[in-house]
């Protein structure tokens, strides 16, 4: 496996031509669709809705570019990555440097049970949940509820998490949040003057909200599957965490295009410097990578039931399974005592 790390480094060098083409085939259609939604609204919101859904797909693709810029993998030039990262950050309402800092911590601590909480979905182990207070259990159940995570989560992220400065944020992160907020405000005011405040809010909020729902789902599936790898620090291994802690989300070609092949998440975690347009090629080239069991769309729906990590079995389980497990283990203890 160590040889893969070295072999993958040959794919780190981005192609300026491919990156520029990806910018063009993402941002130009996004702008065109935005305009089409505006004119479609004159007839009916229902006529505009299919265009909104399509535009949200291009918003996700825009975020993938933003994501790659943050990893310094989209262009070879840091200045180019940072420039386009800030631009796509404004388009996706995400502060570039602030998000990058959290995401870097996520990559450094992914699948490490002792270092959870940095850019992750909140996850408790079975033992933690069983020993938690009733209030903590209610809070955790609320947080992990699909309606909260996928429908209220995008609102929290857009209106609060990415808009407000946290005390522990670095000066660079704070400037990133302030700068992004100001840029969003300037663009918003300009668009309100051009198309009207009502049309702007309907169009922008609809497109962004749908994109965030899909985006959170993608991130959720990437690290929430039955046999996902988690380990304590003393047994944690980077390669294992990458290959078994990140999913291979096998999507249809169209969805793979819109999501920038981020379904090859195990490859991305193994080497985050590889631009999105090389991930599939890397996966197909190395037998060690394409032997990873894929998760298809139907299979990914099972992730909705995964709530807790059971350290004893190394599997993700649901609340119902946790209750059954607690009863079974309590019975074993009683039998052992008697």
Describe the protein's topology.
Layout (H helix, E strand, L loop, with lengths): L1 H7 L7 H25 L4 H26 L7 H14 L4 H14 L14 E2 H6 L2 H11 L1 H16 L9 H25 L1 H27 L14 H8 L7 H6 L6 H6 L8 H7 L1 H4 L6 H4 L7 E3 L4 E3 L1 H19 L1
Parallel strand pairs: 1-2
Antiparallel strand pairs: 2-3
What this model shows, in words?
The protein is an all-alpha fold and 338 residues long. It is 67% helix and 2% strand. A three-stranded mixed β-sheet has the order 1-2-3. Strand 2 and strand 3 (315-317) form a beta hairpin. The N and C termini lie far apart (48 Å). The model has no long low-confidence stretch (mean pLDDT 94).
Keywords:
single chain, 338 residues, mainly alpha, three-stranded mixed β-sheet, 17 helices, 67% helix
């Amino acid at each position: 496996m160590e040889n893969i790390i070295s072999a993958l480094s040959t794919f780190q060098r981005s192609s300026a031509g491919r990156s520029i083409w990806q910018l063009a085939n993402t941002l130009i259609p996004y702008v065109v669709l935005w305009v089409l939604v505006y004119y479609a609204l004159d007839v009916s919101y229902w006529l505009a809705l299919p265009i909104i859904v399509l535009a949200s797909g291009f918003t996700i693709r825009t975020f993938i570019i933003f994501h790659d810029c943050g990893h310094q993998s989209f262009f070879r030039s840091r200045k180019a990555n940072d420039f386009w990262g800030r631009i796509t950050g404004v388009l996706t309402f995400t502060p570039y440097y602030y998000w990058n800092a959290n995401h870097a911590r996520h990559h450094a601590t992914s699948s490490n049970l002792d270092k959870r909480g940095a850019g992750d979905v909140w996850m408790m182990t079975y033992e933690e949940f069983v020993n938690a207070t009733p209030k903590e259990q209610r809070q955790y159940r609320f947080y992990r509820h699909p309606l909260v995570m996928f429908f209220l989560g995008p609102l929290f992220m857009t209106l609060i998490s990415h808009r407000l400065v946290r005390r522990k944020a670095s000066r660079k992160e704070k400037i990133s949040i302030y700068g992004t907020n100001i840029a969003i405000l300037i663009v918003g005011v300009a668009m309100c003057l051009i198309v009207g405040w009502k049309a702007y809010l309907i169009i922008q909020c609809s497109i962004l909200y749908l994109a965030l729902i899909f985006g959170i789902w993608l991130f959720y599936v990437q690290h929430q599957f039955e046999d996902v790898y988690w380990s304590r620090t003393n047994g944690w291994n980077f390669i294992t965490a990458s290959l078994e802690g990140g999913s291979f989300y096998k999507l249809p070609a169209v969805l793979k295009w819109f999501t920038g092949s981020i379904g090859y998440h195990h490859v991305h975690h193994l080497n985050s410097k590889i631009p999105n347009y090389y991930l599939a090629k890397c996966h197909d080239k190395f037998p060690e990578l394409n032997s990873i069991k894929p998760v298809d769309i139907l299979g990914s729906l099972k992730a909705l039931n995964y709530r807790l990590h059971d350290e004893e079995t190394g599997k993700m389980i649901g609340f119902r399974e946790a209750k059954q497990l607690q009863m079974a283990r309590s019975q074993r203890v009683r039998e052992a005592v008697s």
